[in-house]
Design goal:
By secondary structure, the chain is α/β, with parallel strands linked by helices. It has helices at residues 2-12, 27-34, 56-64, 67-73, 76-81, 138-151; strands at residues 20-25, 42-48, 93-100, 123-127. It has one domain: Rossmann fold (3-Layer(aba) Sandwich). The longest helix is centred in the C-terminal third of the chain and has 14 residues, at 138-151. It is globular.
Length: 160
């Protein structure tokens, strides 16, 4: 969160009220959903397979794997995702994109569909899509384009 805040400050200075469109995949969507707590004004946030309400698969892994494996694989932000509390819907517009493996319609390999969406926001679900390889999927890019286009008829895209 701090690193993203620093990068945005280096690009936009102190202009935190500048309208931003943010697209975040996985933890990037979690960070994007919290940018308003740092004073940033988001016009739209598009989340892609983001564990907005935690990641139950981490709890399963901790329960099933030997502690040496868990200690080796655990990263600091994973503890936050294991809290099993629902993140409040941010005060800006947004769109959630979820994915699922074939024949397992609620899981994308890392996140369950109900963990990756805000009920108040529009939602697009991509079947036959994997959390780790979704960026190679043209259906994702079309869904992102449509999500942004339905919110803004014209926009300027700046990449950091």
């Amino acid at each position: 969160m701090d690193a993203v805040d620093r990068v945005l400050c280096s690009v936009y200075g102190d202009d935190r009220q500048r309208s931003l469109i943010v697209v975040g995949q996985s933890m990037g969507g979690v960070v994007g959903a919290r940018l308003h707590t740092r004073g940033w004004h988001l016009d739209t946030l598009v989340t892609i397979g983001s564990p907005l309400h935690g990641a139950a698969v981490l709890n399963y892994a901790v329960d099933c794997l030997p502690s040496t494996v868990v200690d080796w694989a655990m990263k600091p932000n994973y503890e936050y995702l294991m809290l099993e509390k629902r993140m409040a819907t941010p005060p800006h517009a947004g769109h959630c994109i979820t994915m699922s493996w074939p024949f397992i319609g609620t899981f994308d390999g890392c996140v369950f569909v109900d963990e990756a969406r805000f009920d108040e926001w529009p939602h697009t679900h991509l079947t036959w899509a994997d959390h780790r390889t979704v960026f190679a999927n043209p259906r994702l890019w079309h869904a992102v384009y449509v999500a942004i286009d339905t919110t803004h008829s014209t926009c300027t895209i700046n990449s950091l």
